[in-house]
Amino acid sequence: MTDPLEQLRDDALREIDSASDEQALEAARVKYLGKSGSISAWGERMRTLGKDEKPIVGKLLNEVRNAVTAALESRAASFRSRKESEALVRIDVSLPGSPHEIGALHPLTQMWQRSIEIFRRMGFALADGPDIEDEWHCFDALNTPPEHPARTEQDTFYLPDGRLLRTHTSTVQIRTMESTPPPIRVISPGAAYRNEEIDATHAAQFHQIEGLYVDENVSVADLKGALEFFMRELFGSGTEVRFRPHFFPFTEPSLEVYVRSKALKGGEQWIEVAGSGVVHPAVFEQVNKARGDKAYDPEKWSGYAFGLGMDRLAMILFDIPDLRLFTQNDLRFLRQFA
Ligand code: DAH
Question: Does any ligand 1 atom lie closer than 6 A to the CB of residue 249?
């Protein structure tokens, strides 16, 4: 009774062993272990067997089923590993690898981050405003009347609807005071735009950090102290700072800020890096009008403001000869700051 079962096992194992690919192996599986396969058929037949035979045949049938299942699995595993080693053979390990470039921050971004970090230590918070502005925030609120040359179409980029690309970040002074009562101590880094003839020191887009400090009894002395501290942190303790009288409509007095340092390229030369001054009372009055209150009472509050030229500062710090390099995306230039 058990002979045919043993015969069946031997046939199955031989067939599995000689299966040449996965398809042949699957065919063998179906033939023996499939629903109507021959080993399954033996399971059916068990029911017809007598008491004596059942345990003997049953035990052998289990052994046969296990042996065939194990053989199928090991043959399938050998097909899988053959496939994997074939795939590996096709990899040429002698080929050079493809290098991954490591990114780095743009020199202007580095300059911004260094500057912001210094101002934060001095207690300045960050403020923001839009690049596309209206004339009121860019000029009128900053005490710059319609006949002022900064407002001509040659100097500024106007949009068809009358708005414009802001010509300085001083707009953020107004926006901050509109939304926040004094005291205020903010900086605002951002882009500004002018209709310039482009050359090594002029660009249509440039970058500034605006500063505004409003409190009681703020004076020129506070302004000088703050900017001197900032410049020395940035360029080193040997840096000299000079303030020269100037005119800006939104400050009185107004001062231009120059730096000089032996440690920097240019050595003995004074370089202009910022405009600054004490906030003009007319600016506070404009803000009050927009706010509809007297929060910025010029009798009570005073302030200083400044606009730092970021591109200029970066050119000094990194010894960059031409402003256009910042926007040309030439990797030979950018890699030097990585
Ligand atoms: N907005 C001026 C410019 O772009 C720079 C400036 C001057 C900003 C004086 C100020 C300031 O805040 O008080 O030329």
Answer: no
Q: Going by CA atoms, what residue is nearest to atom 9 of ligand 1?
A: 276
Assess whether the C-beta atom of 119 lies below 6 angstroms from ligand 1: no
Structure tokens that stand for 164 in this block: 């414009």
170-182: per-residue pLDDT in tens? 999 999 999 999 9
Statement: the pTM of the whole predicted model exceeds 0.85 = no
